[in-house]
């Protein structure tokens, strides 16, 4: 982590607290500890607010484009408040370090995005990145039936630069012989199909190139030299060098925390996402059902130490609990009625085993279902209705009477 915070190219410069904190966040996210990373980000935000309040308002230049603050309510954690200045960057840090701090915080976000993108997802990211960097100059390319893409994933008109993409999964090259063969074949195809090509760039997300891939690249480099075509690499370092050419809105759209929120939601089991989507549709079209069954059990709140804010949430969404039950029960497949409760119970059990209290468990479970950036598309409300249903059904948290019956007697 220290090596990343103070690379050889920056040897001799003073450590900045933001560097260490940014690398700590990246290390947590790399290790899959997303809940801890988000909690760390929120804690940094609150500490920064405390520091900012004691030293007075920062100068106008430092405030421009920074986050305005953060509300601990999951519903109000928006992309603008959490990542306007990058992963965990703060108002106080902007006042102290200016724009340089912001860019240091964006770089770990870029690295994480590159590691998590493979195959077509990486190709799409490259196209989005270069389209914003070179508007009206970069052409996105997609295959066209049996004609394919002619060895071209993107083309920059002004320089005659052709981009050929390879996105490795989590930085590991699978089927290395096939990858090397494709690299060479794609270059020769591009040379034949695109006489306007003056430069060919192997665009990838690898920190290090495996030796067989180096040999294949050198083969292409020799062929390019013979044909008068420049051959080069466009890897993570090149992406980092180009970050400064993007504005804050572009950075947020490409690698901001909203991107990771959407990615995490997409990683949920498909059966869970199907139910969430159906609940959204139902809540938009049906009124809540108010009856005696829609009253939350106060004794269960007390027994499980549910905090006041979540009691209020459950009171609001309990009337939608029956809607969720009906959707699960009437699913057209035999998997969904089992899969959703099983998934929810598994996540509850895991979070409880990690030592989280009731508020923390509910917060993280809601984030997993709704995403930790509220897009105001109905998913927040649908996730809350699902939690209320699972709480009422004792899929998550415990029923006092049931626990008493299972406890050994004296």
Explain the overall architecture.
- The chain has 410 residues and is mainly alpha-helical.
- The protein folds into three domains: 113 residues, no CATH class; 118 residues, Trna Endonuclease, Chain: A, domain 1; 138 residues, no CATH class.
- The protein has 21 helices and five strands.
- Helix 12 packs parallel to helix 13 and helix 17 packs across helix 20.
- The N and C termini lie far apart (53 Å).
- The N terminus is likely disordered.
Outline:
With 410 residues, this protein is mainly alpha-helical.
Set down the secondary structure blueprint.
Layout: H1 2-5, H2 17-30, H3 34-55, H4 60-63, H5 79-83, H6 91-97, H7 99-116, H8 119-133, E1 138-140, E2 154-156, E3 161-166, H9 176-193, E4 199-204, H10 211-227, E5 230-234, H11 236-242, H12 248-255, H13 257-266, H14 270-285, H15 298-303, H16 308-317, H17 321-329, H18 336-353, H19 358-370, H20 379-392, H21 400-406
Largest sheet entry: 5 strands, mixed
Order of helices and strands: HHHHHHHHEEEHEHEHHHHHHHHHHH
Q: Decide which structural class fits the backbone.
A: mainly alpha
Distance between the termini: 53 Å
Counted up, domains total 3
The order of strands across the largest sheet is 1-2-3-4-5
Helical element count?
Answer: 21
Proportion of residues in helical segments: 55-70%
> How big a fraction of the residues is strand?
5-15%
Q: Give the averaged pLDDT, no decimals.
A: 78
The radius of gyration over CA amounts to 25 Å
Low-confidence stretches: 3-11, 55-101
- The outline comes out as elongated
Tell me how many strands there are. Answer: 5
């Amino acid at each position: 982590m220290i090596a990343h915070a103070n690379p050889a190219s920056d040897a001799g410069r003073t450590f900045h607290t933001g560097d260490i904190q940014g690398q700590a966040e990246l290390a947590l996210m790399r290790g899959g500890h997303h809940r801890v990373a988000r909690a760390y980000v929120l804690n940094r935000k609150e500490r920064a607010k405390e520091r900012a309040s004691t030293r007075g308002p920062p100068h106008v230049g430092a405030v421009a484009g920074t986050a305005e603050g953060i509300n601990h309510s999951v519903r109000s954690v928006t992309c603008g408040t959490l990542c306007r200045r990058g992963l965990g960057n703060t108002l106080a840090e902007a006042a102290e370090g200016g724009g340089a701090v912001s860019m240091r915080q964006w770089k770990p976000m870029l690295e994480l995005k590159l590691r998590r993108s493979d195959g077509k997802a990486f190709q799409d990211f490259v196209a989005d990145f270069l389209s914003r960097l070179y508007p009206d100059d970069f052409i996105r390319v997609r295959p066209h039936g049996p004609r394919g893409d002619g060895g071209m994933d993107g083309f920059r008109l002004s320089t005659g630069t052709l981009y050929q993409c390879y996105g490795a999964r989590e930085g590991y090259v699978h089927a290395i012989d096939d990858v090397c063969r494709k690299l060479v074949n794609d270059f020769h195809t591009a040379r034949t199909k695109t006489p306007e090509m003056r430069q060919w760039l192997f665009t990838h997300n690898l920190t290090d190139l495996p030796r067989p891939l180096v040999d294949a690249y050198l083969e292409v480099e020799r062929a390019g030299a013979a044909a008068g075509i420049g051959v080069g690499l466009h890897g993570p370092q090149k992406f980092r060098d180009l970050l400064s050419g993007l504005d804050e809105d572009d950075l947020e759209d490409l690698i901001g925390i909203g991107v990771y929120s959407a990615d995490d939601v997409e990683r949920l089991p498909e059966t869970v996402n199907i139910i969430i989507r159906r609940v959204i549709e139902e809540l938009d079209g049906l009124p809540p059902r108010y009856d005696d069954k829609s009253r939350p059990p106060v004794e269960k709140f007390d027994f499980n130490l549910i905090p006041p804010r979540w009691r209020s949430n459950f009171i609001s969404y309990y009337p939608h609990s029956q809607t969720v039950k009906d959707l699960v029960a009437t699913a057209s497949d035999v998997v969904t009625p089992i899969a959703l409760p099983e998934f929810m119970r598994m996540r509850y059990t895991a979070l409880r085993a990690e030592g989280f209290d009731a508020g923390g468990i509910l917060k993280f479970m809601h984030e997993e279902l709704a995403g930790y950036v509220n897009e105001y598309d109905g998913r927040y409300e649908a996730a809350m209705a699902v939690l209320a249903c699972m709480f009422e059904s004792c899929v998550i948290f415990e029923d006092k009477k049931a626990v008493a019956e299972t406890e050994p007697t004296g």
